[in-house]
Design a protein that fits this description.
This protein is α+β, with helices and mostly antiparallel strands. 28% of the residues lie in helices and 19% in strands. Helix 1 crosses helix 6 and helix 7 packs antiparallel against helix 8.
């Protein structure tokens, strides 16, 4: 088991500037690290502009890097692993505070290692490593390395790239004094798994360690998540204005993509646009369907600002609404409000899931078939972080809701007409006494776009 490290409470003042640029010493870790001293729950959560200024405090990226690294050290110290080897791009960003083009997300082209008391090491795609040496001074220059595993098998394992990197990683583990301890790994290709095992690396589940670290957000993460939500607020204003007969689902998706990138998004992951007879059952996509009068339509905007993601549904009707459509919306809103009312530190996720209907009560044969419709999930650098709230898992494996968590709650109710449906989602920050909703486009009652 990795050795635990005792530190003074004064070391936890993460809002104070560090004396060094290097993020490495294991003395930064502490199992109690959690509450950010700069949280001010008596004030609205900031939604600052993009630019840094000298006349007010905004997002402090040095503080953010330090906080994330301390959380990671603490989570690793609590585990039985001596190191973490990450291939998941969200974990790499959390560990090293680096990001290259969004094209990397499904390539498994980058990886990072945190071993023993050493600084993190990143293997990046070609010239990106040289770029980091110039612009990323929070790790030693020699820790930014070029690497190549094979781009998901395009270069076959027989070429020896994986074997060479596995040997290199084993050497770094031995140098850090943790070569005989398990290494926590998140995701990887089978070929790399086999090569690591051949090199003598003991493999454990590192994804749980990373999720432990990432579940509590500091003030900078919360501001970034809040700003990302504000971008979606604006996008829904545009959709509400544009949603009229003659426009297609894909046209609204295109307009939303442009608006989000204009506002500063670094990745529009997906936008669901679902209308009319497509609403029930929920298909989780968009098409070229033409919007018609009286349609019920719902949208989900999944995008990120500085890496921090949104998942934010809204339902509209076009011009007018029927009683069954209004009733579906009212029920979805009630289920959502009942869940939000329970959110506070110390509440377990089974308590929240219990206020939602069972799958059979809204037309599904079992909970797995209805998964994701009455749903809660953490938000951060990934779309799905802790906690997960669902009848599929929460009733038997509940998790505690904690101050500093940020997550989304979403509900879905089919209409009695057999094809319409309402879908609503709110994002929230867990405070010391309850929660603050940060998705602010009005949704208390069914919005009618371009009312007749």
């Amino acid at each position: 088991m990795a050795k635990k490290t005792n530190i003074k409470k004064s070391d936890l003042k993460i809002h104070e500037p560090r004396q060094t640029q290097n993020l490495g010493p294991k003395a930064l870790s502490d199992s109690s690290l959690g509450v950010d001293p700069e949280w001010r729950w008596d004030r609205p959560i900031q939604s600052p502009g993009i630019s840094g200024v000298d006349f007010e405090n905004r997002v402090d990226f040095k503080r953010l890097r330090n906080y994330r690294f301390k959380r990671l050290r603490a989570a690793l110290d609590r585990s039985e692993c001596g190191a973490l080897l990450c291939f998941d791009v969200n974990n790499i960003r959390y560990m090293t505070s680096t990001k290259i083009g969004e094209w990397e997300r499904d390539k498994i082209s980058r990886f990072s290692l945190l071993a023993g008391n050493k600084d993190a090491v990143l293997w990046d795609f070609g010239s990106a490593a040289a770029h980091h040496r110039l612009y990323c001074d929070w790790l030693p220059q020699e820790n930014w390395r070029a690497g190549l595993l094979g781009l998901r098998g395009t270069v076959p394992p027989s070429a020896g790239l994986m074997a060479a990197h596995a040997k290199e990683i084993k050497g770094l583990l031995d140098d850090a004094g943790v070569g005989n301890q398990p290494v926590g790994i998140d995701i990887l290709e089978p070929g790399m798994l086999f090569e690591l095992q051949k090199a003598g690396v003991k493999i454990a589940d590192g994804q749980q360690i990373m999720l432990d670290a990432r579940e509590i957000k500091n003030i900078d993460e919360i501001m970034l998540l809040n700003y990302a939500a504000a971008m979606v607020d604006a996008t829904y204003q545009m959709i509400w204005e544009e949603l009229k007969p003659g426009i297609k689902e894909n046209e609204l998706v295109a307009k939303a993509n442009k608006m989000l990138y204009d506002l500063g998004s670094d990745d529009v992951e997906a936008i669901n646009a679902i209308s009319g007879e497509r609403c029930n059952p929920h298909p989780h996509n968009f098409t070229d369907r033409l919007i018609r009068p009286g349609d019920q339509a719902f949208f989900d905007v999944l995008q990120s600002y500085q890496g921090y993601r949104t998942c934010y549904y809204r339902t509209f009707n076009v011009g007018r609404a029927t009683d069954s459509q209004r009733d579906a919306y009212k029920q979805a809103r009630e289920w959502l409000d009942n869940a939000i009312a329970l959110i506070k530190p110390g509440v377990s996720t089974d308590t929240v899931a219990a206020v939602w209907p069972k799958a059979e009560e809204f037309g599904f044969p079992n909970e797995l078939a209805a998964f994701g419709l009455q749903f809660g999930h953490g938000l951060g650098l990934a779309l799905h972080e802790r906690p997960i709230i669902s009848r599929v898992v929460s009733m038997e494996q509940p998790m505690e809701i904690k101050t500093g968590m940020v997550f989304a709650l979403e509900t879905y109710c089919p209409a009695t007409d057999g094809y319409s449906a309402a879908r609503i989602e709110e994002e929230m920050v867990v405070t010391d006494t309850g929660c603050k909703v940060i998705s602010l486009f009005p949704a208390e009652e069914l919005p009618i776009a371009n009312r007749y």
